[in-house]
From TrEMBL, chains A, B:
<keyword id="KW-0223">Dioxygenase</keyword>
<keyword id="KW-0288">FMN</keyword>
<protein>
    <submittedName>
        <fullName>2-nitropropane dioxygenase</fullName>
    </submittedName>
</protein>
<dbReference type="InterPro" id="IPR004136">
    <property type="entry name" value="NMO"/>
</dbReference>
<dbReference type="GO" id="GO:0051213">
    <property type="term" value="F:dioxygenase activity"/>
</dbReference>
<dbReference type="InterPro" id="IPR013785">
    <property type="entry name" value="Aldolase_TIM"/>
</dbReference>
<dbReference type="Pfam" id="PF03060">
    <property type="entry name" value="NMO"/>
</dbReference>
<keyword id="KW-0560">Oxidoreductase</keyword>
<keyword id="KW-0285">Flavoprotein</keyword>
<dbReference type="GO" id="GO:0018580">
    <property type="term" value="F:nitronate monooxygenase activity"/>
</dbReference>
C-alpha cells in the first residue's frame, strides 16, 4: 500500500514537469549561488533547477530574464518557464515576487522561512497563485508541526519539501532530525493530503538519492552538491572549500555568527545556517569580541578567495554531507550521474533481495 | 563499482551468519531491554539478534544460559551460538566477558563506548578473540574518526557498525550527524579495509531498511523498533511510551540527566543518551535543583508503570524515529515485515526507474 502510494505521488509530481526524468532530481534554491545558469542546467539535464533569492529582492527580475534567454537557447520546451524560483519569505518582497512571477510564469516557486509561520506562507501562496495560476507552490519545512500546518492550511502547497537536519544553509536551529527519520514521519502524517513530498538534507550522490526514494520521496533535492558545479554563482575560494572539506559532522555547525558578521540580522530564531567552521567561529568560541571578529572578517572579505578555508573567516554554508562532494562538475553531469547511480543501486538491490 | 562492492560486502557478511535472510536485519544490543528472548527471536526470524548488557556484568552468564535453552528449542542450527552479545566497554568487566564468550561461543560480540578509545577496544577484541576464535567482533562507532581508528588499528573488527545521530540510547554527544550522511562518508573512508559496514540510527521500518541498503549497508541494525516487541525486557509503562510518542525531533534529546537521576555516573563525556522528554527534564530546565528532581524521580520509580509518560519522570531512552513505532508486535513479525517492506520498495523503485 505504502509502496503504491509513493509510486502514485512520484507520478503525480512528474506530470507537472514532463521533461523531468526518473529519478526526479531537484536543484535547491541556494541564495545567490543557485543562479539562472545553474537552474537552467539542472532542468536541461532532466531535473528541475530552482534559482535562489539573489542578493537583493529585485535581482530576481534580471535573473529571470537571463534564465529565459538560457531556456530559449536550450532544448527545453514547456508552456511555463521550466525552472523554479525560491523565495526567502521573512525578508522577501512579496510585491516584487508577485510581479516577477506574473511576468515570467515559472513552473514552480519554493517558499521558505516565514517570520510569522503558515499565515505568511498562505499570503505568499495566494498572491503568487493569483499572478500565475499554473505555477506550483513548493513549501519547505523542517518540522512535523510545520508540515501539518502547511497541508492543513486554507491554502495548502502543491508540493511539500521536507528538509532534514543534515542540510546546509538555513534550516531549523533545533527540533529537527535526520532526513531518514523526519521524511518518513512527515510523509505518513500528511498522506491524506495527497501532496507529493520531496526530500532534502544530506543527499549528495546516487546513494542518497536511492535512499530518499526508498523513504518515499517523490523527488530529491540537492543543494551542497550543486555548489560544486561549474554553473554555481560562487567564489572560487568558497567552492574550493566545498570540495576540500570532509567530516561535516565535526567540521560544520549551525550558528548565526556568520550572518551577523556579514551584517545580516533579523532571521527568525527558529532558523540558523549550517556552515563550515573556520577562524571566525574558533575565535568567537575563544572569547574574541564580536567587533574584533567583524574587523578581521571584513579584512578577509577584501582578500578574495583567501578569505575562505580553515584559516579563513568568511561564511561557508554547506550541508553535513560536504565530505561526499569531491570535485567540481557540470551540473548536467551531476544530475545524470546521480540518476544513474541511484538506478544501478536500486536495480542491484532489487535483484539481490 | 560502488554498487558491486556493496553487494560483495553484503555477501561477505552473510556468509558468517548463514541462517540470516536478505535483507539482513540486526537487533541492536539495548542494555537490559534486549535480553535472550528478544535476541533469539530475531535470529530465529532470519535476522541476527544481539543481547544487550544486563544490569550487572555477571548477569551475562545467566542470559547466555537462557539464550542457549531458547536456541535449543528453536529451529536454529549453527556451530556457534547464533546470537550476538553486546558489551558496554567503559564500565564492562573484561574478565567476565571473556569467560562468558569462551563458555558460550556466540557468533558475534558488539563492542561500544570505550573510555580510552581504540586502545581499549583493541584490548577487548584481542581477549574475546582469544576466548573464541570464530566469534566475530563488531565495533560500533558514531564518528568518522573513530571508524578510521577502528579499521586502521592493529586489531581491526570483523564488522563496523555506524550509528547516526537519530539513534536512541547512548550515542555521540556531539560531532555526529544523520545516518544518511554519516554512513556514506564512513563507508567510503573504510572501503580499502574490506570490512562490512552495518547501518544503525533512525531505522524503524522497511523504508529505513531499504534506505540503509541503498547507502551501501551490509546489514541494518534496529533498536527502538524492538523496544516495542513482545520479547523486549521492558516495563509496560516504558513500552507504552515507545508506542505513544511521536515527533522525536521535538520530543527527544540527548542528556545525562536521567543517567544521573538513576545513579549512573562516569559515562565518557563524548557519549550521551537520547531520551523522551518528560517532567524530570522540564523541571530541570525550569531550574529545579537536582536533589529535588532525584527525590521526585525515586518516588516515580516506586509508582511502577505510571513513572513513564509525559508527566512521568523516568528515563525513556528511544531513538528520534520513535514516532514511526506504532504498535507492539512479536519480534519475528517485525523482522519479517520490515524485510518484506524493504523488498517491495526496492522492487517497485527498480521497476519504475
Amino acid at each position: 500500500m505504502a509502496t503504491q502510494r509513493a509510486a502514485e505521488l512520484r507520478r503525480l509530481l512528474a506530470r507537472s514537469y514532463p521533461w523531468a526524468k526518473k529519478s526526479f532530481i531537484v536543484g535547491a534554491p541556494m541564495r545567490i549561488m543557485a543562479g539562472p545558469n545553474l537552474a537552467v542546467a539542472v532542468s536541461a539535464a532532466g531535473g528541475l533547477g530552482f534559482m535562489g533569492p539573489p542578493a537583493k529582492p529585485d535581482g530576481v527580475l534580471a535573473d529571470l530574464d537571463r534564465a529565459r534567454e538560457l531556456v530559449s537557447a536550450s532544448d527545453l520546451r514547456h508552456p511555463l518557464l521550466p525552472i523554479g524560483v525560491g523565495f526567502q519569505v521573512w525578508n522577501g518582497d512579496l510585491k516584487i515576487a508577485t510581479s516577477a512571477i506574473e511576468k515570467h510564469k515559472p513552473c514552480a516557486v519554493w517558499l521558505f522561512a516565514p517570520k510569522n509561520g503558515q499565515a505568511e506562507l498562505d499570503e505568499w501562496t495566494a498572491s503568487l497563485r493569483g499572478a500565475s495560476r499554473d505555477t506550483q507552490v513548493w513549501i519547505q519545512v523542517g518540522t512535523l508541526g510545520d508540515a501539518l500546518a502547511a497541508v492543513n492550511s486554507s491554502t495548502p502547497p502543491d508540493v511539500l519539501v521536507v528538509q532534514g537536519s543534515e542540510a546546509g544553509g538555513h534550516g531549523m536551529t533545533k527540533e529537527s532530525t535526520g532526513t531518514i527519520v523526519l521524511f518518513a514521519e512527515v510523509a505518513d502524517a500528511v498522506k491524506e493530503s495527497g501532496i507529493p513530498v520531496v526530500a532534502a538534507g544530506g543527499i549528495i550522490d546516487g546513494r542518497g538519492v536511492a535512499a530518499a526514494l526508498s523513504l518515499g520521496a517523490a523527488a530529491v533535492a540537492m543543494g551542497t552538491r550543486f555548489l560544486a558545479s561549474s554553473e554555481a554563482r560562487i567564489a572560487k575560494g568558497y567552492q574550493d572549500e566545498v570540495v576540500r572539506a570532509s567530516d561535516g559532522a565535526k567540521t560544520t555547525l549551525r550558528t548565526h555568527l556568520y550572518n551577523h558578521l556579514r551584517g545580516t540580522f533579523g532571521w527568525p530564531e527558529q532558523f540558523a545556517p549550517r556552515t563550515l567552521i573556520n577562524r571566525s567561529w574558533i575565535d568567537h568560541e575563544a572569547g574574541v569580541p564580536f567587533e574584533k571578529l567583524q574587523t578581521l572578517h571584513d579584512e578577509a572579505a577584501k582578500s578574495g578567495d583567501a578569505g575562505w578555508g580553515p584559516e579563513g573567516r568568511l561564511a561557508t554554508y554547506v550541508g553535513a554531507g560536504v565530505g561526499l562532494v569531491r570535485s567540481v562538475q557540470d551540473a548536467g553531469e551531476i544530475v545524470e550521474s546521480v540518476r544513474n547511480e541511484a538506478r544501478d543501486i536500486l536495480k542491484a538491490l532489487s535483484d539481490d533481495a
